[in-house]
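hi! just following up on the protien thing from before. the input was this:
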Amino acid sequence: MRFGTKQNLGGTATWNQLIFDGSYIVGVQSAQTLLAISRNAKTKTDQSVKEAIVSAYANVLLAEESVQILKKNLQTVDKNYSDTQKIFENGFAEEEDVEQLQITLLGLQNNLNRSERMLEISYEMLAHTLGLPVDTEIKLSEDLDVVAMKYYDLALLSKEIPVEENIDYRIAANNAEAARIFVRLEKAKALPSLTAFVNYGAQAYSGKFTFFNSDQEYFAQSILGVSLNIPIFSSGMRGARTQQMQIEYEQALLELDETENRIRLDINAARNDYEYSLENYETLKRNLELAERIENKNRIKFFEGLATSFELSEAQRQLFNAQQELLQSMLNVITTKATLENLLDTTKYSPNN
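and the predicted 3d structure came back as:
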């Protein structure tokens, strides 16, 4: 015997609404902290890229200036060598004088070849730092001395900022806040969660498939209720995890204090480095002037027979060293200022940047 109808159709729908969940609340509250972490990371990246570009740009200018100076020196020494060779052929100079100048000439040529190769690499590094293909043709419109004077800023030595505005401190503070949120999250997992739900459904029965007819009768049903989930036992893992997060939070606070002290030290060190680079630049400019006068006097004495080729070579070597030291001091002015500016930078993230 068959009981019931041959055809039946039913359908239900359930809607759940979270009323209280500690983990969810902590997650919502942490959204601003996570957003601040991302923004500060973007600002830190921008500062690092800026400093890298300044360094790469200055290195290209240094290589350019070095090549130009070496070419000028090579031209001068080559003329001295040619003149001395003629004097030697006429019997008024020793062969050692010619050989001494030839040694200087070969050394300059070798340094020039190396500097020209370094110049190509410097351009490739600048293009790479700018995010361009390394074979991109780049032309710079300034020389090293002009850029160095633009970076000559004594007012920067007296600039002060609150340590809390430094980007490294802000990142460390974000990390400490994130660690505190993880502690709250672990504690929230011990709280109960409350959920409300509504279930609605309808069923229909028929001996034939008449469920889409207008006179088909449907029987509705609905349920309204709440569900309470209470965590009772976690085998001690929840407490251990909470203690671990607490330890990490305390460690983050210690790192925040250490970061504050390190930033103060870095600012003072960068300020001293920048001040020294400015003083060294002025000193080496005077040294170069002296070295040029000494070399000029020794060159005149050499061709008048009052100085040896060794004395001339020593004066030239002193001049060449003074030239390279001055170029390096210009580069130091640029790079040390960029470092100090980054430490004193209080720029905040902006979507318009």
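The helical segments are 22-29, 31-89, 95-129, 144-150, 167-188, 237-303, 309-344.
Strands lie at 7-20, 193-206, 219-229.
cheers
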